[in-house]
Amino acid sequence: MMERLKLVLQYFQSNSESISNGICMVLALVSVKLYTSFDFNCPCLPQYNKLYSLGVMVFPPIILFFLGVLVNRHTGVMMDEWMRPPGKRSKNLAVVKYLFSAMVQRALLAPMVWILVTLLDGKIFICAFSASVDPEIFSGMPNSTGLDVIQIMAKVPCKEDVLFRNSSFHKAVSRYVRCYSQAVGWSMLLFLIVLGALGRVLKPCFEDHAAFLQTRYWSNYLDVEQKLFDETCVHHARDFARTCIAHFFENMREDVQLCPSHHKVIKDFTEDWEEEEEEKRLHGIRKQEQVDHLLNKWYFSKPELDVSRAASMCATCKEERKKNSTVVMSSCG
User: Could you tell me which residues come within 8 angstroms of residue 24 by beta carbon, excluding any fewer than 6 positions away?
Assistant: First the structure.
């Protein structure tokens, strides 16, 4: 069981698209949980019922949508690709559009779940439109209170009101409006499913599949490139900090008189640092200005997507190293 769980976690950690899908699913479940724990109380006033109900149905989905945009990794990759200077690498608008579409589709999941749940539940719909129902199609409407019809119908969602004690009128109206709400909810769900199925089936008929594969490949490439760049920066920063700390303790050992135990700790630390000196990834970058220059160069002029030149340069370097090693060995002989 633990091995399977570990494999699942490793899969999600290695696949950013799966992580985005998982986060969107969690947001959808959170939206359902929020709605079920939300205590909805209708004002039961003609001028406020519809406004309050529409606010509950609209504002939480907007918040959930922007939250989905915020936690989606495609958002950062898309904005980086859209805002970066062209430099040595041209921009591909198709990739930006693909990332934007993927981001919007995932961010819309939680808001749509909220809206569907509210429609299928029906309480918000009853509060919003009970005053619009014709009371003549129902029997048993209270008529001895001195209130007009609109005020009486606006109080239908409040079943504990004194108007509806020992009366089935509010139950009949609520059931009537809830049926409309559920019909709208199921119709919307059916429409979304059919729309998604038609889009999945008909998309290859109206789109160049080869171009789609290229767009998807380069969108994944941008995601992987950004992730590897961040990891490389973390490794380089760790090596840079290790070098600075080693130099600090080396200088402190020379300038400050320490006890023997402290000398031993510093000696062990500097010896370990000297043993790993050849394995560090600093490559001669030993100043803050040099690091800032490289980061600035990466942002303004990312390398072009052509590794053939780098491969030829590496081959040339290997040949030169072989020649140098041959010369050294012959001179030693």
Answer: 68, 72, 106, 107, 109, 110
126 with 174: CB under 8 angstroms? yes
Q: Would residue 146 be called left, alpha or beta, if left means φ above 0 and alpha means ψ between -120 and 50 degrees?
A: left
Chunked into runs of 10 residues, the chain (333 residues) has average pLDDT values of: 54 60 84 88 88 92 92 87 84 90 91 94 90 82 70 81 72 90 95 92 83 89 90 88 80 56 53 50 76 88 77 59 52 48
* The token pair that represents 91 in the structure block: 């921009």
Cα 301 to chain center, whole Å?
Answer: 27
Tell me the pTM. Answer: 0.75
Under a CB-based contact definition with an 8 Å cutoff, are residues 181 and 192 in contact?
no
Segment holding 171, helix H or strand E:
helix 169-206
Angle CA 81–86–91, to nearest 5: 50
Backbone angles phi, psi at 281, to 5 degrees: -100, 25
Question: What is the residue-wise DSSP string for 204-257?
Answer: HHHS-HHHHHHHHHHHHHHHHHHHHHHHHHHHHHHHHHHHHHHHHHHHHHHHS-
